[in-house]
Write a structure and sequence with these properties.
The longest helix has 23 residues. Helices cover 49% and strands 13% of the residues. It has a single domain, classed as TIM Barrel, CATH 3.20.20.210. Helix 4 packs across helix 6. The relative contact order is 0.13. The protein is built from 15 helices and ten strands. The protein has 351 residues and is an alpha/beta fold.
Length: 351
């Protein structure tokens, strides 16, 4: 089945990405960047300044869109905001993304003592939401705004227990306790999605990187990650929002399972075989990606970037539904000419 075609007229960024999500052929390959780290550096502020000011967050992305002329913004701030909201200790480096500082559950048995949490009361959740609202207010329906909502439940559980402890729990912990923690995390993630939907954004998303095959088996993914991913996809859809899921690493062996979550789009790592993605997804879901952010965008030459982008577009853009991006967050050290080349290559590509 081919993509639906419509009369090809010039589209703005919002229209291009919306078309891809609806299975309609856009006028150009849409570009949506996960580039908050690079954008902060280019705007000339610290991560500390950025994460503490909704206006600075919005201004940072406005400056980046003005410079590179891309279609969609992935509004990301840190990778541990939800974790902080549920009580995980967090470090806030001046010039780097925030990071967890130890687990907040000493053992799996302590999950029964967890108190209900209202994540709206956490400072950095409020800042994130306000930044998305400001961007949507500014761009209206010109640029597509994806409000990322930090961790999916499995990933959040990993931060609450600590990665090593969580992996051990999955092998030894009673199902009742594992389920209790995952349900708790599902509630926190769902709260963020519902709050984000109220900002007026165009799409919501989560990352579930520890749920990938490089960390756990497909069997564990099926039992302890996929059911909760499916729940948050349903929450997103209940608010009227399309939903994107990101899992790091090579996801070849779980692609069919990921499709069963019902997500509209998947931001996949460059390690995942794009030919297998195309065969598995077809036009049933959108691929967001998947240029290598480090080896190609940050460390490659302009020619490397052009070549890899052309290879991806030739393989995928004519047969599947694609939103061009790196396979994960773009490093802050990425040369501007490399990012510009990736976007220019997409703009010049003919379907």
């Amino acid at each position: 089945m081919a993509l639906a075609y419509q009369e090809q007229k010039k589209m703005n960024g919002h229209q291009r990405i919306t078309a891809a999500l609806k299975g309609v052929k856009p006028d150009k390959v849409p570009v949506m960047l996960h580039n908050f780290l690079m954008a902060v550096k280019e705007y000339g502020i610290t991560m500390e300044q950025y994460r503490n000011s909704p206006q600075l967050i919005a201004d940072t992305f406005k400056s980046s869109v003005e410079k590179y002329k891309y279609d969609g913004i992935v509004v990301d701030i840190d990778t541990v905001t939800l974790a902080g909201a549920v009580g995980v200790k967090v470090d806030f480096p001046v010039n780097e993304a925030a990071r967890p500082h130890g687990a907040n559950i000493p053992d799996l048995g302590a999950v029964s003592d967890l108190k209900p949490v209202n994540i709206a009361g956490y400072k950095y959740v409020g800042i994130w939401l306000e930044a998305v609202r400001l961007l949507k207010e500014y761009y209206k329906d010109e640029i597509f705004i994806r409000g990322n909502c930090d961790q999916a439940p499995f990933s959040l559980a990993s931060m609450m227990r600590g990665t090593q402890n969580w992996m051990f729990d999955l092998m030894t912990g009673p199902d009742e306790q594992l389920t209790c923690l995952l349900e708790y995390c599902t509630d926190a993630t769902s709260q963020f999605i519902r709050l984000m939907a109220q900002t007026g954004c165009d799409m919501v998303s989560n990352g579930d990187s520890p749920a990938g095959p490089e960390m756990i088996s497909p069997e564990i993914y099926l039992k302890y990650a996929l059911p909760y991913e499916r729940k948050i996809v349903n929450v997103a859809h209940s608010t009227g929002m399309p939903y994107a899921l990101h899992i790091c690493g090579n996801t070849d062996v779980i692609l069919e399972h990921m499709l069963a979550t019902g997500a509209d789009a998947f931001e996949l790592d460059y390690k995942t075989d794009t030919e297998k993605v195309l065969k598995t997804f077809g036009i049933k879901a959108v691929l967001i990606g998947n240029i290598d952010p480090s080896g190609v965008l940050a460390l490659g030459s302009v020619d490397d970037v052009r070549k890899k982008t052309e290879e991806l577009l030739e393989l995928y853009a004519r047969k599947g539904r694609l939103i061009l991006n790196a396979g994960c967050a773009i490093p802050q050290t990425t040369p501007s000419e490399n990012l510009a080349t990736m976007i220019e290559t997409a703009r010049n590509f003919t379907f």
